[in-house]
Amino acid sequence: MSEARRAAVVAVGDELLRGDCVDSNSGEIARRLAQLGIEVEQFLVLGDDRRLLAKAFAELCSAHAIVIATGGLGPTLDDVTREAAADAARVPLETDATVLAELEARWQARGQPMPASNARQAQRPAGSQLMPNARGTAPGFRAWIEGGMLAALPGPPGEMRHMLESELLPWIERTCGRGEGLVSQSFFLAGLAESAFADRAGDWMERGANPRMGVTAHFGVLRVTLRAKAETQRGASDLLAARCAEFRARFAAEIFSEDEPRLELALGRTLLEGGWSVTTAESCTGGLVARLLTDAPGISAVYREGWVTYSDEAKVARLGVPRELIAAHGAVSGEVAAAMAAGAARASGARAALATTGVAGPGGGTATKPVGLVWLGLALDGAVQTRELRLAQVGRDSIRLYAAYAALELLRRALQRAAPRTD
Amino acid sequence: MSEARRAAVVAVGDELLRGDCVDSNSGEIARRLAQLGIEVEQFLVLGDDRRLLAKAFAELCSAHAIVIATGGLGPTLDDVTREAAADAARVPLETDATVLAELEARWQARGQPMPASNARQAQRPAGSQLMPNARGTAPGFRAWIEGGMLAALPGPPGEMRHMLESELLPWIERTCGRGEGLVSQSFFLAGLAESAFADRAGDWMERGANPRMGVTAHFGVLRVTLRAKAETQRGASDLLAARCAEFRARFAAEIFSEDEPRLELALGRTLLEGGWSVTTAESCTGGLVARLLTDAPGISAVYREGWVTYSDEAKVARLGVPRELIAAHGAVSGEVAAAMAAGAARASGARAALATTGVAGPGGGTATKPVGLVWLGLALDGAVQTRELRLAQVGRDSIRLYAAYAALELLRRALQRAAPRTD
Question: Is B72 helix (H, G, I), strand (E, B) or coil?
Answer without folding.
Answer: coil
